Structures are given as structure tokens and as C-alpha cells.
């Protein structure tokens, strides 16, 4: 198993780079779009790698940091999610945003990810709900617990109303975190303050 590769970037493509080591061996490494965008031909890079062995090919997937690598491995543990789909997810969303979507049970966000339909999104929520609680940060985890099931009735009503207006849970939750003592407010006040925050970001 190849755990990491350090070498010079010899070539860049849309989905992969070619890393040439000091021994003269070049490795084709598939990477998230954001990570490929940080590379330049002729520069050195070190990537965390995962080797996928298939009957017809041996593929390398690489990541510039441990956070993306860890999420990639987590995704591979979900039924129906292979390396290509997992890489597509990591090319479309940052790990913290993905964890937040799972914690907030946001099907709307998950089904927008490449290769993820409603059934796969539901499997992601089902199989990862107990695994991502502390990964995305304790504050997000405790916030998710408060907003869904442990918060006040006013908070639940406000979230439901905002969802009905077309906003997703992963949009609503960060906005709620900006409102001081939101759990002590009425649903009407919460809704007004969240909408004010949304209006201010345009």
C-alpha cells in the first residue's frame, strides 16, 4: 500500500496530476479539483494517497492534507460509494461543509453533489450520522444537537419555516450561530434575524 508520494509535478490534467519521484518513476494521482488548483508544473508536492485495486486497473487517489484524506476514507465505507464518487464529492464540497450537511440531515445539499441521488444521500445520512459527530468540530456537533431534537420549540418552528421558504439546513444553521441566545427567542424573532443575515450577504 502506497501511503504517500513526494515528487515533482510533471503534468497537470483536469482530474489528475503526474508526480515524478527522484527515482524517475511517475505516478498518476487523481485529486480533488481544489487540490489540483494548488499545484504547478515543476514544483514539488507531497500527497497522502489511497490505492484502489480493481480487476482492470490500479488507481491512486491523492490529497494535500489529512482532512480530505480522512473524509475520503469515511466515504468509502458507505454502501454504493466508490473512489470516483468519493473524489467527486470532495471536488464539490469542503469537509467541514459536508460534515455540517450530514449533521443537519440536509438532503438538499447532499443530492446536489456529483453522483449522489436521493437514495445514496439517504444512505450517507444513515451510515455516517454516528461517525461525524465530533469530526467537523465540537461546536458544530453540539449546535446540531441543539437545533435538532434538543433545542426549543421556537427554534424548531423557525427552522421549519425557513426551510419552507427554500433555505437549506446547512444555510440556516451557521446563521443561527450568529444570533446571540437564539434558543431564548421566539420563532418570529429568530426568522426575522436569520432573514436579515441572509439579506446582508447579498
TrEMBL record:
* CDD domains, per the entry: UBA_RuvA_C
Taxonomically, the superkingdom here is Bacteria
State the GO CC annotations: cytoplasm; Holliday junction helicase complex; Holliday junction resolvase complex
On whether Amino-acid biosynthesis is a keyword of this UniProt record, the answer is no
Q: What is the first-listed, main subcellular location in coarse terms?
A: cytoplasm
The record, for Pfam families, names: HHH_5, RuvA_C, RuvA_N
What's this protein's function? The RuvA-RuvB-RuvC complex processes Holliday junction (HJ) DNA during genetic recombination and DNA repair, while the RuvA-RuvB complex plays an important role in the rescue of blocked DNA replication forks via replication fork reversal (RFR). RuvA specifically binds to HJ cruciform DNA, conferring on it an open structure. The RuvB hexamer acts as an ATP-dependent pump, pulling dsDNA into and through the RuvAB complex. HJ branch migration allows RuvC to scan DNA until it finds its consensus sequence, where it cleaves and resolves the cruciform DNA.
Tell me its family.
Answer: Belongs to the RuvA family.
Q: Summarize the subunit comment.
A: Homotetramer. Forms an RuvA(8)-RuvB(12)-Holliday junction (HJ) complex. HJ DNA is sandwiched between 2 RuvA tetramers; dsDNA enters through RuvA and exits via RuvB. An RuvB hexamer assembles on each DNA strand where it exits the tetramer. Each RuvB hexamer is contacted by two RuvA subunits (via domain III) on 2 adjacent RuvB subunits; this complex drives branch migration. In the full resolvosome a probable DNA-RuvA(4)-RuvB(12)-RuvC(2) complex forms which resolves the HJ.
Identify this protein by name.
Answer: Holliday junction branch migration complex subunit RuvA
| Organism the protein comes from | Phascolarctobacterium faecium
Amino acid at each position: 500500500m502506497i501511503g504517500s508520494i513526494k515528487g515533482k509535478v510533471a503534468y497537470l490534467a483536469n482530474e489528475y496530476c503526474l508526480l515524478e519521484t527522484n527515482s524517475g518513476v511517475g505516478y498518476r494521482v487523481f485529486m480533488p479539483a481544489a487540490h489540483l488548483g494548488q499545484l504547478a508544473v515543476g514544483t514539488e508536492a507531497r500527497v497522502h494517497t489511497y490505492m484502489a485495486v480493481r480487476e482492470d486497473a490500479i488507481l491512486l487517489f491523492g490529497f494535500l492534507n489529512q482532512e480530505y484524506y480522512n473524509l475520503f476514507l469515511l466515504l468509502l465505507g458507505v454502501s454504493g460509494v466508490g473512489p470516483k464518487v468519493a473524489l467527486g464529492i470532495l471536488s464539490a464540497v469542503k469537509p467541514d461543509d459536508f460534515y455540517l450537511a450530514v449533521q443537519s440531515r440536509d438532503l438538499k445539499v447532499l443530492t446536489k453533489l456529483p453522483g449522489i441521488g436521493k437514495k445514496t444521500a439517504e444512505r450517507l445520512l444513515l451510515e455516517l450520522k454516528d461517525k461525524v459527530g465530533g469530526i467537523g468540530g465540537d461546536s458544530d456537533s453540539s449546535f446540531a444537537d441543539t437545533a435538532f431534537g434538543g433545542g426549543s420549540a421556537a427554534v424548531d418552528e423557525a427552522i421549519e419555516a425557513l426551510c419552507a421558504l427554500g433555505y437549506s439546513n446547512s444555510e440556516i444553521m451557521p446563521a443561527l450561530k450568529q444570533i446571540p441566545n437564539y434558543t431564548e427567542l421566539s420563532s418570529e424573532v429568530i426568522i426575522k434575524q436569520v432573514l436579515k443575515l441572509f439579506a446582508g450577504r447579498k
